[in-house]
Amino acid sequence: MKISFSKSLNSNIDLLLCPVFKNDKTQKNYDRNIKKIYSVLLNDKLLSGEKGESEIIISNEKNLPKKICFVGFGEAGKLQNFDVREIISAKMKSLMDKHNKKIGLYVVPELEKFITELIEGVLLVNFTSAKFKTGKDDQKAKEVLFDELIILNTNETKYIKQADEALLAAKAVNDVRDLVNGPPNFVNVEVFTEKAKKIAKENGYKISVFDKKDLEKMKMGAILAVNRGSGPKGSAKIVVLDYTPEGISKDLFNKPILLVGKGIIFDSGGYNLKPYKGIEDMHQDKAGGAVVMGVFMLLKKLNIKRRVIGIVPLTENLIDAEALKPSEVITSYSGKTIEIRNTDAEGRLILADALSYGIQQFKPEYTIDIATLTGACIIALGDRYAAIMGNDRKLINSLLKAGEDTDELLWEMPMHREFKEIIKGKVADVRNADDGTAYLAGTMKAAAFLENFIDESKWAHIDIAGVTYVERPKPYDYPMATGFGLRMLIKFFEKI
User: Fold this and answer.
1) Is residue 306 among the annotated active site residues?
2) Is the pLDDT of residue 147 over 80?
3) pLDDT tens sequence across 383-439
4) How many other C-beta atoms are found inside a 10 Å radius of the C-beta of residue 61?
5) Other CB atoms closer than 10 Å to residue 276's CB: what's the count?
6) How far apart, in Å, are the Cα atoms of 208 and each of 183, 264, 309, 368, 407?
7) Predicted local distance difference test score (pLDDT) of residue 116
8) Is 348 a catalytic residue?
């Protein structure tokens, strides 16, 4: 898929999207032929510009696109960024067709400040999750995707940067969606690792990959404990990516931002086995790690000015005779001992080792972890907000603002002092779940557990359990993986 620009209409465009507004009877920014068509629609009361309203015209004019779709955006002065993205994506999704390969988009002055949202809204729907269909079903799923988005506006140079960045972001989101949707026999630890190596090579990043033997030497006891149930051939790795922008000062080089993403390839729950209707989609438990991969697809291309360290711990959480058992005590990389009360609370274990390692090795200014960590988060916040907790007001506020700007919304949850007391162990330093009341405030208790492994670092924890894999998608998403968190984190890195 590509983006191009044109100053004039032509019949090579298969479908033209024309934003219109309530109470605007002239639409003065359009080609005279488009204005003529719009006037007829207004006079016949077929269109008023109300939000979400639309009308499609089939054109036979030689200098006009084959199909013209007028899309209502309501009152221009009342638009918000999420309105623009959702309105245009909902309409574009409904128009996906094998005959619509070249999409035209008029950018009018009323939408100039929302140019990123407008272009993203079109591009994010150009996706299919049907990657493993064959024959006619495969052809049918893929033939509706379009090849080119043509931006129509006389101020072409004004939008080149935003258009390029929106295209890069959409491609990265789709890559993240594919990683998350990928079943565990196709996207396993090795495939995930090769993806990281490819990203590093394409962008000139430093990369380190620690395999099981390395992890044993490093005494990464928590991730190795989770991996035990995968059998002798079950892979466990920790991937470390290092992006350092050119010309960075020594001061900033020594103050990187650490980003850690949970990479559980498949989560059975271990001996605390997940139930029916809880286990079928647990290949999506690698979403945090996939988002970290997506961020690193973009850091250099977008010329982010901060050094960023990405760490993804990778393993499955399965069951065999050697699998981790409730009541065991394990020793983490930090040296702290952990009492296992629930083998399905495994994500916090692998994050504990990765966080401790990253903070000890790189001494970051800020640390962020992102993970599908708790079912409790889904109960608390549903499928439109991710939870955020942490210990630094500036960091949390910056992430909250980035979420608002991208419609990847975060909601801050409390970190009460008693939660840290609750997860103290009876026979070890800490326990990975409390007894009796573990179902209460589970999201915050998981964060309280992680807080034991972040030392003095300024830290934020983002739980994306409810928003990363959905049945009720936003207009620019599809059922299953959403890629949530990628655009929010990139916005954060651009502003911090």
Assistant:
1) no
2) yes
3) 999 999 999 999 999 999 999 999 999 999 999 999 999 999 999 999 999 998 888
4) 12
5) 6
6) 25, 19, 11, 19, 33
7) 94
8) yes
Lookup: tokens for 382: 């549903």
**Confidence category of residue 28, pLDDT binned at 50, 70, 90:** low
pLDDT tens-digit series, residues 187-228 = 999 999 999 999 999 999 999 999 999 999 999 999 999 999
Q: Out of 274, 301, 384, 420, which one is annotated catalytic? A: 274
- CB count within 10 Å of CB 395 equals 22
Q: What is the pLDDT of residues 324-343, one digit of tens each?
A: 999 999 999 999 999 999 99
Strands 257-261 and 308-317 turn out to be parallel
Q: What pLDDT is attached to residue 475?
A: 97
Q: How far apart are CA 450 and CA 461, in angstroms?
A: 8
pTM: predicted TM-score of the whole model, two decimal places: 0.96
Instruction: List the catalytic residue out of 348, 431, 458, 491.
Output: 348
Count CA atoms closer than 13 A to 318's CA, side-chain side.
Answer: 19
Q: Measured between alpha carbons, how far is 8 from 316 in angstroms, rounded to an integer?
A: 54
Question: What gap in Å lies between CA 386 and CA 425, rounded to an integer?
Answer: 28
* Residue 27 reports pLDDT greater than 70: no
